[in-house]
Write a structure and sequence with these properties.
Elements lengths: L3 H13 L5 E3 L8 H10 L2 E5 L6 H14 L7 E6 L7 H11 L3 E5 L7 H6 L3 E6 L2 H9 L4 E5 L5 E2 L5 H9 L6 E4 L5 H9 L4 E4 L1 H4 L8 H9 L5 E4 L7 E4 H6 L4 H4 L37 H21 L10
Parallel strand pairs: 1-2, 1-9, 2-3, 3-4, 4-5, 5-6, 6-8, 8-9
Antiparallel strand pairs: 7-11, 10-11
């Protein structure tokens, strides 16, 4: 997948099937088939993490539901896979990927080399979640077709680097496809990261409290009531840096001292088990303050499309902040 012209053509083909260059990011214990299907039918790429399906049999059912519900007029879909060595279900999941053939496979918490041969064999693309330029270089060395830059402000597992310099540094050594996430929640922001050199924007938190996700209502209420100042960045929950809502941390009885300690990365066993800390501590990104009411995915995408169109129009006029009478 080293031919830049061929890759550009493939990315443009994906974009042509979408209402705007945005992906409903895979959210752990949040995204499900309904999320993916609603996103794709609304015109943005839908995605979900494989571990969200509790068993391999459940995952097969989920993939069957997604592939039978989507048609040629819908946006493409993606599956997010954990490739960390501790993840015990990897072999079962990659076998299902080969069978159901998602357009994109997005690897996380491990190298993309574990899936590239299988995904490339059926014509899919492999993107790797990365949180630093160093990890970006390693992912490319291990065969990733594209990168997902997880920047500061992202929900769930987040990054430490700001969007603009992260994109700039990666673009100094990679001119292939980029997905960028971290606090993106409006059509204006989607257009902005496009202008910075990204191919797609990654939006998780903006879809977090929609009616099609599988979070409990108490989680939705907390999202509607939270702002970016209500988040705590910590490695205490999963071992990877994440943004967690303070109210859920307090409700789980976890102290500030506990949140300062880093947990050991461990994705073995039943990831839905009640003993796992992430069952009780809820995440969100820095765009959470803009989410204040119930919405469906279609409603969110409709808003994003209108905001994006307005941003493009304002940009073409070159006077984004001036009213018409002042131009």
């Amino acid at each position: 997948m080293n031919d830049i012209g061929a890759m550009d053509s493939r990315i443009n083909k994906i974009k042509s099937a979408m209402a705007l260059p945005a992906i409903a990011a895979p959210m752990f214990l949040v995204s499900n088939p309904a999320t993916v299907i609603a996103a794709c039918k609304s015109g943005v790429m839908g995605s979900f993490p494989g571990p969200n399906a509790r068993t391999t049999a459940d995952l097969r059912d989920w993939l069957t539901e997604i592939t039978t519900s989507l048609g040629p007029d819908d946006a493409p879909w993606a599956m997010n896979m954990i490739t960390h060595s501790s993840y015990g279900r990897f072999d079962d999941e990659i076998a299902l990927v080969e069978e159901f053939q998602p357009d994109l496979v997005i690897t996380a918490l491990g190298g993309p080399h574990r899936v590239t041969t299988q995904v490339h064999a059926y014509g899919g693309l492999v993107f790797a979640d990365v949180t630093s330029p160093g990890f970006a270089r390693k992912a490319l060395e291990k065969g990733a077709d594209g990168l997902v830059l997880v920047c500061a402000g992202a929900g769930g597992h987040t990054g430490e680097y700001a969007i603009l310099p992260f994109i700039e540094e990666v673009r100094s050594f990679f001119d292939g496809p980029l997905i960028v996430g971290g606090g993106i929640g409006t059509g204006r922001a989607i257009r902005a990261v496009e202008n910075l050199g990204a191919d797609f924007a990654y939006l998780g938190t903006r879809f977090l409290a929609t009616s099609e996700t599988m979070i409990p209502d108490a989680y939705r209420q907390m999202v509607w009531q939270s702002t970016m100042e209500d988040l705590i960045a910590s490695r205490a929950i999963t071992g990877a840096l994440g943004n967690w809502m303070r109210a859920s941390v307090e409700a789980a009885g976890i102290s500030v001292e506990d949140m300062s300690q880093a947990a050991t990365l461990d994705f073995s066993g039943d990831m839905h088990a009640g003993s796992k800390a992430w069952k009780h501590v809820w995440s969100a990104g820095q765009g959470v303050g803009a989410i204040t009411r119930p919405e469906t995915i279609a409603q969110v995408v409709g808003t994003l499309v209108e905001e994006y169109k307005q941003a493009v129009a304002d940009q073409s006029k070159g006077s984004r902040y001036l009213p018409d009478s002042a131009e």
